[in-house]
Design goal:
With 111 residues, the protein is α+β, with helices and mostly antiparallel strands. The protein is 26% helix and 28% strand. It has one domain.
Length: 111
């Protein structure tokens, strides 16, 4: 398997940026008639982390996901980074070409 990080252009500074999951999301609960002290940590999945780029990147995350899906799987890496997992280098090369065609230099793959 080949793993490459997925970067998008920052809407403000125009440099390549990528979200990194620093801590699992903490989901709590509230109720009308009682107090619930339960908090469950939950990691985001790849596409959920990609959706968090809305407003940060110059392109829409749903458009990026649509282009990526035929070539690889969007995942969260071991260190929390947004990545695409490929079965072969050929798929990675084809996706890089498709991203360039669809988004120009706005979405990039990097090791």
């Amino acid at each position: 398997m080949i793993h490459l990080r997925l970067f998008g252009r920052c809407r403000i500074y125009h440099d390549p940026v990528s979200p990194v999951m620093k801590d699992p999301a903490r989901i709590g609960w509230s109720a009308w008639f009682r107090s619930i002290d339960l908090v469950t940590p939950q990691k985001l999945k790849g596409e959920e982390l990609l959706r968090r780029t809305r407003g940060w990147w110059t392109v829409e995350p749903d458009d990026v996901a649509r282009v990526v899906k035929p070539y690889g799987r969007i995942i969260v890496g071991q260190s929390g980074e947004l990545m695409v997992e490929f079965e072969s280098q050929a798929e990675a090369d084809r996706l890089a070409a498709e991203l360039k065609k669809e988004f120009g230099d706005q979405v990039l793959l990097a090791p």
